[in-house]
């Protein structure tokens, strides 16, 4: 049977992908954006740093950022694997190609971190602006933001790049399988041909749609778990990270997590901020809001039920926190999502 060309929007459900991307950005401590084959963004920028936001908003400096993105993507396509490089400000970025049937469809761009080890001296600086006085001026102007960029080891960056590559491959394979099944089913119905029951056993139309709908949610948990195994979180902090992801419905407090780790509350807070790149309260709030968005999109649970499911003390507080992060109430968010 002749294969039809697959477009990127057939492989990625952009609304679900944004939720997944936000979660991945949170646990990897990297900014992430997805672009099409022309380099145009097809997702919002997750966790974009203050420094990079400032540089990308600068009318003269943004051209260097775009040149880095373009060259990084091309190198990833050429090698057909994740490409790790330094931008013009010695910030580490990663380009992960999305390739379908041998065609370059786009890329996941991640990074905006600095290396905590000496690997940077051996890495390729993809664009050189050392002779541009304006580049030095801008760096000085936003130096305090530059110093706030997260620190990762090269090994951690490489593990994240490999994880994102595995995610791309998994997503593409799943989408191609489901699209092939649906295509064959529809053609069989349209031509009144008898369906091969052995081939379609267990693949009712409802089941196929449920499988497709569940891919993103399954990947969130699977790849969060995969990353937590790979990321070099200290053995002291790991019990708290495991507890947070396994007990989504609890009201997680810093006091309880300090007890889980058998350390003082003040030491836990300092260690958590250092290793996760955010305060404990901010990290938990962002994580629970991302989980809330999934429930609002994928279930018929009421706002009150979502609040209870995620361990908020009462719905009013949940609504307040949700609006703080998303700019709208949970009800408005759900209505907007359903109407898209």
Number of helical regions: 15
What percent of residues adopt helix (DSSP H or I)? 55-70%
Characterize the biggest β-sheet: 5 strands, mixed
Can you give the mean pLDDT?
A: 80
Low-confidence stretches: 184-231
Q: Quick one: overall form?
A: globular
Description:
It comes from Terrisporobacter hibernicus. This is PocR ligand-binding domain-containing protein. Keywords: DNA-binding, Transcription, Transcription regulation. Residues 238-336 form the HTH araC/xylS-type domain. By secondary structure, the protein is an alpha+beta fold. It has a domain at 1-232. It contains 15 helices and five strands. The chain has helices at 8-11, 14-28, 50-56, 62-79, 133-141, 143-146, 154-190, 205-230, 238-246, 254-261, 265-276, 280-298, 303-309, 315-326, 330-339; strands spanning 31-36, 83-86, 92-100, 103-115, 151-152. Strands 1, 2, 3, 4 and 5 form a five-stranded mixed beta sheet that branches. A hairpin with a 2-residue loop joins strand 3 and strand 4 (103-115). It is globular.
